[in-house]
Write a structure and sequence with these properties.
Largest sheet: 10 strands, mixed
Strand content: 15-25%
Helix content: 40-55%
Radius of gyration: 29 Å
Number of helices: 30
Shape: globular
CATH superfamily of the largest domain: Glycogen Phosphorylase B
Distance between the termini: 76 Å
CATH class of the largest domain: Alpha Beta
Length: 852
């Protein structure tokens, strides 16, 4: 029965404790243990029942209890301290203010992502992409960047997972009650909900805007589930990654196009837009459309002035991770939009096609983002290399190592993922500055001052907490399945609080090889059931609802956990989320990762475990490929890539067992009279001191700011100034160069005969060029040179500009170069010509290059 009207009811907080609401609605609490303890003190049991949601907690606790708290001097002192801490945090000078505020006063970065993982109390995330987005915002907040986030507020979020009696994954979509979550409706000056509109073929969507406060940062979330919208439009923000291709397209239109319109309505138009994956790539063409309508620019001029401020991060080398829409869907949704851009439908389709000559190919969101971004990156050094290989077709004739996709390796927001006990211990010995400046190597060296007894005691307590948590979850699972009292009681027998504990938790995609550990079940059983040196493994993770193969992996593991000889050593915890992840990364001894190299783009869960003192045991893929060194963990293999996957599984499973049997297990159980594994603790310390300064989001966000954001902002401002005059000049120059480029050709390249030379000898060359209607200022002529590899080609070539010498009477341009030879062995060279303009950020983007 529908109500006549609705009323939003909020808790009646006594005036003395009204700051509780302010604390609850700013998610800085989720990485501040002292503020968390304020909420826990209100009602410890209920805090767990509401799944660590302070807004819901305040709404459910009795009025009597609230009155008691207002009269409790201990609680009031604690609340006052937490309130003062948040105020001080918001007022403190930040890194960005200290180092860059004098450079820019009008930069605003908008970070677009389909999911954000900030806290389990805000379930609008599915996995690593969302957690990374949440950590990115948290560090941007601490660093003080002029920054906003933009995403979608899903009515049902991602699914809750449970397993049936046969171990088959079931999905349960539980509705989110936004009015008991730490989100607030954005309202205008008259107190009305602030909304924007987005047009779809079946009608206009009215979109509500919600706000999440993350310290100093505003995260805005869009919601179409409004009464005035028809059912099909209300469903757009129903599920994260739910529905078919058309629903996904509708969501991505909302995120990219609706997100920009929402920022306009909020009077927060960005100068820099960061697309976290291709889901939001439609923002690139919406920026162009806005510029054309508001400023009267041509499509080309608007493209130059807006694309200058776009940044794109790709997160996966797996083709299925990139959205591709059929042409019929694009035509259905963008026919009129193309007209607004002044483009034919085929011309608009070509913006998202890797090869526009194949007109029937799909519209690829990653291609769209790549084409309209000035800065592009993968999320680890290896992933950057893989991405250059994967997308090199967008830049034909460009050497692979020069493809304009770089890398910024992911990190984690350490404060959000370390245990309270570990944080307290590090505070005592490293000082709190490591949380504000975790990228400072000198701070982390102080971890060597922690007595090994203290570090091990904290680590053991967290393992004990993990075992207790796992047993509780198992009991709950058995009770739901109506298991017998005897079976439920067995849950208290699983796992050993003192045994070497391995954690494996991630999305159950087949390339992550969750079952590699079971390749030789007999050998594994002997490792696990060694009475003197027992080992146990805890699994968690979800498969996508449509990933049948991923569900089969979960079922295989579940069935193994039911075997009599394994059930005490092997556990699968249902419904992997931020809460489950926290217990795992804070409590395991070893974090296991076994992807098929090079399909793991980054792998931030291992970084979270690292920050808590766990040691990583992983294939050399993603972040571990650049992080691994002796005495910080273990590497499976040496970075090989195989054609035969069955053979690869055989080799790498054997290597995994060897590491456990010969290195990890003996090191863990090598104890002195004090029962302290000093060798293991030494490796924990070395891993944290060597790797934590690098693999954190403070370092990562600083890189984005200094390598991308500041440059993108400056370039966008330059091209947009004076009615985008420079953008117009650049667009006209590009059109002219593209038209006359076919006239250009290299006549000859002459160099002295240096068949054999010595290091330090001078190599001289002269290039003659027929330029057509291009002047020397339009061109960049380069010598491309380097060591010759076994395939007879130049490896990792170096480019050195050739100097314009003269124009001969017949118009021939002459370029010269003299360089010292520096490479021992076989050296080779060639020459090339590229377009050149002072406002051109990447010459390769024009697709014009001539090689000798």
């Amino acid at each position: 029965m529908k109500p006549l009207s609705t009323i939003i009811v909020k808790p009646s907080l006594p005036k003395a404790i009204e700051n509780l609401e302010w604390l609850a609605y700013n998610l800085r609490w989720c990485w501040d243990p002292d503020t968390i303890e304020v909420f826990r003190r209100i009602d410890r049991e209920r805090w767990e029942q509401v799944y660590h949601n302070p807004v819901r907690l305040l709404g459910e606790v009795s009025q009597e209890r609230l009155e008691q708290l207002a009269e409790d001097p201990g609680f009031m002192a604690h609340l006052k301290r937490a309130t003062a801490s948040l105020k001080t945090f918001l007022e403190n000078e930040t890194w960005f203010a200290r180092t860059h505020k004098h450079e820019v006063t009008d930069m605003r970065v908008a970070y677009f992502s389909a999911e954000f993982g900030l806290s389990e109390s805000l379930p609008i995330y599915s996995g690593g992409l969302g957690i990374l987005a949440g950590d990115h915002i948290k560090s941007a907040n601490t660093l003080g960047l002029p920054f906003v986030g933009m995403g979608l507020l899903y009515q049902n979020g991602y699914f809750s997972q449970y397993l049936n009696n046969d171990g088959w994954q079931q999905e349960d979509y539980r509705g989110n009650d936004f009015y008991t979550m730490p989100v607030q409706r954005v309202q205008d000056d008259q107190g009305n909900d602030l909304t924007v509109t987005v047009s779809y073929p079946d009608g206009e969507a009215r979109v509500r805007i919600w706000l999440v406060n993350v310290g100093r940062i505003s995260l805005f979330l869009l919601d179409t589930n409004l009464e005035e919208n028809p059912p099909r439009i209300r469903e757009i923000t129903s599920q994260l990654y739910g529905g078919d291709d058309e629903m996904r397209l509708r969501q991505e239109i909302l995120l990219g196009i609706g997100g920009l319109r929402a920022l306009d309505a909020l009077k927060q138009r960005p100068t820099v837009c960061h697309m976290n994956e291709g889901h939001s790539a439609f923002l690139a063409i919406e920026r162009i459309r806005q510029s054309m309508i508001e400023d009267g620019y041509s499509f080309e001029q608007a493209t130059e002035s807006t694309a200058a401020g776009n940044v794109f991060t790709t997160h996966t080398p797996v083709p299925a991770g990139h959205d591709v829409f059929p042409p019929a869907l694009i035509e259905k949704y963008f026919k009129s939009y193309a007209q607004e851009l002044g483009l034919s439908l085929p011309a608009l389709m070509a913006l998202g096609q890797a090869d526009p000559t194949h007109t029937s190919s799909g519209f690829n969101m990653t291609v769209l983002a790549m084409r309209f971004a000035s800065y592009r990156n993968g999320v680890s050094k290896l992933h950057g290399k893989v991405s250059r290989e994967m997308w090199k077709g967008l830049w034909p004739n460009v050497p692979e190592d020069e493809i304009p996709i770089t890398s910024i390796t992911n990190g984690v927001h350490i404060s959000s993922h370390i245990s309270h006990q570990m944080r307290s211990l590090q505070d005592n010995y490293l000082g709190p500055r490591r949380l504000e400046e975790p990228q400072d190597q000198t701070i982390w060296q102080l971890i060597n001052d922690i007595p090994p007894e203290e570090l091990w005691r904290v680590h053991e307590r967290r393992r004990e907490r993990l075992v207790a948590f796992a047993r509780t979850r198992l009991r709950q699972q058995l009770q739901r399945e109506s298991a017998s009292p005897v079976e439920i009681a067995r849950a208290d027998e699983v796992l050993n609080p003192g045994a070497l504990t391995i954690g494996f938790a991630r999305r159950f995609a087949t390339y992550k090889r969750a079952t590699l550990l079971f390749h030789d079940i007999e050998r594994l059983t002997n490792i696990l059931n060694n009475e003197e040196r027992p080992v146990q493994v805890i699994f968690a993770g979800k498969a996508h609802p449509r990933d049948h193969a991923g569900k089969e992996l979960i079922q295989e593991i579940y069935r193994l956990t039911q075997q009599e000889h394994l059930h005490r050593r092997l556990v699968f915890i249902e419904n992997y989320d931020m809460c489950v992840a926290r217990y795992l990364v804070q409590g395991v001894d070893i974090w296991l990762n076994t992807p098929l190299r090079p399909l793991e783009a980054s792998g931030t869960s291992g970084m979270k475990a690292l920050a808590n003192g766990a040691l990583n045991l992983s294939v050399l893929d993603g972040w571990w490929d650049e992080a691994y060194q002796l005495d910080v963990g273990w590497a499976i293999g040496h970075g090989e890539e195989y054609e035969d996957q069955a053979y690869q599984n055989e080799v790498e499973a054997s290597d995994l067992y060897n590491i456990l049997e010969k290195e990890a297990v003996p090191l863990f159980y090598d104890r002195g009279a004090d029962d302290l594994p000093r060798g293991w603790v030494a490796r924990m310390k070395h891993a944290m001191s060597a790797l934590c300064p690098q693999f954190n989001t403070h370092r990562m966000v600083q890189e984005y700011a200094e390598r991308f954001y500041l440059s993108a902002h400056a370039r966008q401002q330059t091209l947009s100034a004076n009615k985008a005059n420079r953008a117009m000049v650049l667009a006209q120059w590009k059109q002219r160069v593209i038209k006359v480029w076919p006239q250009l050709h290299i006549q000859s390249v002459e160099a002295q005969d240096l068949t054999t030379s010595r290091i330090g000898d001078t190599f001289s060359a002269t290039l003659k060029l027929t330029p057509g209607d291009l002047s020397e200022t339009d061109l960049q002529v380069e010598l491309y040179h380097g060591h010759i590899g076994a395939n007879g080609e130049i490896e990792a070539g170096i480019t050195t500009p050739m100097t314009f010498s003269k124009t001969e009477d017949d118009g021939t341009q002459v370029y010269v170069i003299d360089i010292p030879l520096k490479i021992n062995g076989q050296w080779g060279y060639t020459t090339r010509v590229l377009p050149h303009h002072e406002d051109l950020i990447c010459a390769y983007d024009m697709g014009l290059i001539i090689w000798a």
